[in-house]
Specification:
By secondary structure, the protein is of the alpha+beta class. The chain has 14 helices and 14 strands. The strands form 4 sheets. It has a 6-stranded mixed beta sheet. Helix 5 runs antiparallel to helix 7 and helix 8 runs antiparallel to helix 9.
Length: 497
């Protein structure tokens, strides 16, 4: 097969190929696997750069001012990690509240929810969102962990996108064909010792071990491939995207982040150089008692220069003019651009006072809420695939569940004025159905359940009141004894005049 004929999909992290050229997708050829890995490795430098920015290893630390190095002057390097701030804020905003999943009418997903609880799915979702925010894409792998010789456990793990590829067909649906996870192995001395390459198909998990590098070939294999069957009913590797372009949340603001760090570094550098200013001698030199040039270390503190002006000789401090007000205006402008570009507000801004209402807070976070809306669409798509794979696995174990049509709700983690919400629900009672208004409450995934609980609570309150008054709650209020006597008694107030 001529691998150059495969049509690689360049945009995004998944690799799309012509299904007809893929061959047996349950046993992909070495050529297809090598092609996919080679395409993916072209993106690893971008991933490394984005991770470095999040960790604080940014371009400012590579700056070297030539004049400062020649004169021994200060060259301060100051880094404010806006990349980490943006990612941590977006991650907390998106997954700070657990993602809730409710079954469709008449369907049961309890077995799936129990399985997710055992996997600590809330922590996993937070880690997944962090990868989405940094890299613009994320991957998770469903697998079966061996607990003992007779016991296994369904597990899920986030996979580093630098060693992971999902290969899809090149149709509009981008149907998954197989996944690849490759890891470099090292010996006890830390030297490279080949790669472990794992292929996840719709039915099989196939492992290869290479002698050197990641290229698969008959001569580069260290032993025979190992293949085991899995029971997820499809490729157990799931791909997520942060947005249509698969860009990280701070990726478009990298130039602004660099500019901000340079401005702050220059401010501190100039301040320090002002303190360590050079003394310039115009038209003369220092002499000792014998009239000889004094032995002074002039390399760092003094510069001798020709005379200037009418007198010829003068002494001045060599400093650079510095307008702090203009610099502060520029710094604030760049900082505002960073927050505007990323949709993440500056929470230290005076506009975010601690006494504003929850509704006012939503208006200030409007841009961030729009960002969440985009994230929610792509997160929901991946989570639906996760639920389906878990359902396939549980059904083989005899546990019935149906996740089709399930409601997935991602609630933003923002301050909520519960008093205002409750008052709004009370004011809307009788005008808007309670099944709708109860959904206004935070972290409520099933408003109908709340309606049923309220009905039961009211019934219990009536029963408690009747018990307190000594009524026999086993009898109906329309019984004769509540009317004042037997039906055959026509005396008293019931007697006609």
């Amino acid at each position: 097969m001529d691998i150059s004929m495969i049509n690689g999909h360049k945009r995004g992290s998944d690799i799309a190929i012509d299904r007809e050229l893929a061959g047996d997708i349950n046993n992909p050829s070495y050529d297809v696997i090598n092609y996919a890995i080679n395409q993916q490795r072209k993106r690893t430098e971008r991933y490394k750069m984005l991770e470095h920015y999040y960790e604080g290893n940014q371009d400012i630390f590579n700056r070297a001012l030539q004049l400062s190095s020649k004169l021994g002057r200060s060259d301060e390097k100051v880094m404010t990690n806006h990349a980490k701030y943006i990612t941590d804020m977006v991650t907390g905003f998106t997954t700070g509240n657990p993602i809730s999943i409710a079954a469709a009418d008449g369907k049961d997903i309890k077995a799936i929810l129990d399985a997710q609880d055992e996997m600590d799915i809330d922590s996993h979702n937070t880690e997944l969102e962090k990868d989405l925010s940094v890299f613009g894409c994320a991957y998770e792998l469903l697998y079966v962990k061996k607990i003992s010789d007779v016991e296994t456990q369904l597990s899920i793990e986030k996979i580093d996108p630098r060693g992971c590829i999902l290969v899809t067909d090149d149709t509009l649906d981008k149907n998954p064909l197989f996944g690849i996870y490759y890891v470099e192995k090292k010996d006890l001395s830390g030297n490279p010792n080949g790669y472990l390459i794992t292929i996840y198909t719709q039915k099989w998990i196939i492992q290869y071990r290479t002698k050197t590098g990641y290229e698969l070939s008959e001569t580069n294999l260290a032993g025979n491939p190992n293949a085991i069957q899995h029971y997820f009913g499809d490729v157990p590797l799931i791909s997520y995207r942060n947005n249509e372009e698969r860009q990280g949340d701070f990726e478009q603001a990298l130039s602004l982040i660099n500019a901000y760090n340079e401005l702050q570094s220059d401010r501190i550098t100039d301040k320090k150089n002002f303190v360590d200013a050079l003394l310039v001698l115009y038209g003369f030199t220092f002499e000792d008692e014998d009239g000889e040039p004094a032995h002074i270390d002039k390399s760092q503190t003094i510069i001798e220069a020709p005379g200037k002006g009418e007198d010829g000789a003068s002494v001045e401090w060599l400093t650079k003019s510095f307008d702090e007000a203009q610099m502060q205006t520029l710094v604030k402008s760049v900082k505002d651009d960073i927050h505007q570009t990323t949709y993440v507000p500056n929470m230290n801004d005076e506009n975010f006072a601690g006494n504003i209402s929850g509704e006012a807070m939503k208006y200030k976070l409007f841009a961030l809420l729009q960002l969440l809306a985009t994230k929610q669409r792509y997160l929901t798509r991946g989570i639906r695939r996760r639920l389906q794979l878990i359902q396939n696995f549980l059904e083989l174990k005899g546990q019935q569940a149906d996740a089709s049509g399930a409601t997935i709700q991602i609630s933003p983690n923002i301050p909520v004025n519960l008093t205002d919400v409750v008052n709004n629900i009370k004011n809307a009672d009788g005008i808007i159905p309670r099944a709708f208004t109860f959904a206004w409450l935070p972290n409520v995934s099933d408003p109908e359940e709340l309606v049923n609980q309220m009905k039961q609570q009211k019934a219990d309150d009536v029963k408690d009141s009747q018990d307190a008054l000594g009524f026999d709650t086993t009898k109906n209020i329309d019984d004769d004894e509540f009317k004042g006597g037997d039906t055959g008694d026509t005396s008293g107030t019931n007697k006609q005049p």
